[in-house]
Amino acid sequence: MKSYNLCILGFGNVGRALAQHLREKTPELRERYGIEWRLTGVATRRLGWIANPVGLDAAALLDGQILSSKAPALANVREWLAAAQANVLFELTSTDPRTGQPAIDHLRAALEYGAHAITANKGALVHAYLEPRDLAEARGKRFLFEATVMGGAPVFSLFRHSLPAVRLQHFRGLLNSTCNVMIEEMERGKSFEEAVKKAQKLGIAETDPSVDVDGWDATVKFCAIATVLMGVPIKLEEIQREGIRNLSAEMVQQARAGGRPYKLVDQIELLGDGVTAYVRPEQLAPGDPLAAVSGGSMLAHFEMDMIPGLTVTLHVPETGTVGPEVTAYDVMADFIRAVSVS
Ligand SMILES: NC(=O)c1ccc[n+]([C@@H]2O[C@H](COP(=O)([O-])OP(=O)(O)OC[C@H]3O[C@@H](n4cnc5c(N)ncnc54)[C@H](OP(=O)(O)O)[C@@H]3O)[C@@H](O)[C@H]2O)c1
User: pLDDT (tens digit, 9 = 90+) per residue, 116-145?
Assistant: First the structure.
């Protein structure tokens, strides 16, 4: 049995769901994996840096109780990690897709301190994949990020553990379920504005709908796949990006009636030394694996030198979507992998 000091940085939807999962799965972690844990650090902008190496009361934190500390106030992430004697950092702060900060600094601090670093923050992955990866390797720690893309479908672990030595040559996917739901609304005769409102009502659109409808969310996830799985550290601005703003209800209804529905497609292909990469609405031919995806589901289709085609689908029931509980599961699974997979 090994015991780990866990630090959660960002205690919002995902951070709280993670704490809940850890509590619920405590017996299983102990019995199946020989893992004991205690929460020794929690931090947010509003709470500040809270640490106790003996363990914080996770139930009280989940109840919204502010934990007071007699210890001197901690000034930054490095002091906090040291005070919490961290073995694992969960970096779950809000994503800044333009810079990846401050998550990148947090991950660096954790790895330099000697803790495993786990994140759900796509921004950090897209802007600084190589640095934490190499730092983790040098320190004998793990840098894991399964929750960043297609929550609930472990695509990074699939390649890392089950597809050794393959070369990914072509990727095609539907990585933004919100646009999918909106296009389907328009197929039912709703206007673009009504479709945006519906997605917001379902709680699946970002507060700023342009993140989804202009293709930013899909592009960032896609960038993470290209960088990590293809070894192509492509920049966001190098991806041709077109969202779904120019689609009208008429266009999508006609396309659906003709058996070639529109979807917001991510595609990247290795061509010699370079790549072509785009995110744009496309009409899909019958038989295209992407055409079968509906509602809040997501799909990733991989073509490799050793395997002609492998499709991973995350099936979500009609108008549902992947919520923070699933994201938090990915984060917890990364924790188990970090401490138990060599
Ligand atoms: N929600 C999902 O289903 C989902 C799915 C995939 C990936 N993710 C990713 O998971 C991460 C967390 O998402 P969420 O839904 O839990 O977000 P959230 O509910 O908005 O919570 C974000 C948390 O991060 C804290 N925070 C933000 N900036 C910080 C900073 N500079 N220093 C310290 N704390 C900071 C916030 O603290 P304050 O409240 O005090 O400001 C809050 O506790 C994001 O990167 C998101 O992109 C989420």
Answer: 999 999 999 999 999 999 999 999 999 999
Answer yes or no: is the C-beta of 76 below 6 A from any ligand 1 atom. no
Concatenated DSSP letters of 50-117: EE-TT---HHHHHTTPPPP-SSPPP-SHHHHHHHHT-SEEEE-PPP-TTT-TTHHHHHHHHHHHT-EE
pTM above 0.90, yes or no: yes
Atom of ligand 1 nearest to the CA of 13: 16
Using pLDDT thresholds of 50, 70 and 90, give the confidence band for residue 341. Answer: low
Query: Phi, psi at residue 85, to the nearest 5°?
Result: 50, 55
Q: How far is CA 272 from the centre of its chain?
A: 29
Alpha-carbon span 197 to 205, nearest angstrom: 9
Return the half-sphere exposure (C-beta side, CA atoms, 13 A cut-off) of residue 319.
8
**147 Cβ inside 6 Å of ligand 1:** yes
Q: Measure 234 CA to ligand 1 centroid, in angstroms.
A: 25
Give burial (CB, 10 Å; 0-12/13-18/19+) of 201: exposed
